[in-house]
């Protein structure tokens, strides 16, 4: 995860980090890809990433135009600006791809993710988990005498923060949808 936050000119603290310190910074980008809703399209898009050794940090897919048979794939990936440009160009050349947008490069965008957290605990841990859930606006969607399931939507950073706070209180399981994103404005 720290590779996503490397700034140009930052020094590395690992003997195994073989990146050129003068090379471009690695950045996280959110791509919105409109594709034909047909079997195999998602596999081909993912294949493009795996064949070139690119990582996908988050992936969501859903049909967005039932009559036009189109789906939207939202991909969060990281790389240098040159790598991101290359990924965008290669996606755009795929036959079943109608449109590709780098939401990060195009300006401000809204990103949200849904997460479910199963937290087990009794006594003070249970009370603290409920208090933190209220602060983070997480909703209790299931409750037993030994556990809660919280539901929360927010930025990936908010989800990460809540998970870190829940770990010592009894976080047992976490399910995340991945990022959904739209550009701001018209």
TrEMBL record:
Enzyme Commission code(s) on record: 2.2.1.6
Transmembrane segments: none
The keyword S-adenosyl-L-methionine is assigned to this record: no
Annotated catalysed reactions: 2 pyruvate + H(+) = (2S)-2-acetolactate + CO2
Pathway note: Amino-acid biosynthesis; L-valine biosynthesis; L-valine from pyruvate: step 1/4; Amino-acid biosynthesis; L-isoleucine biosynthesis; L-isoleucine from 2-oxobutanoate: step 1/4
Subunit description: Dimer of large and small chains.
Protein's UniProt name: Acetolactate synthase small subunit
Organism of this sequence: Tabrizicola oligotrophica
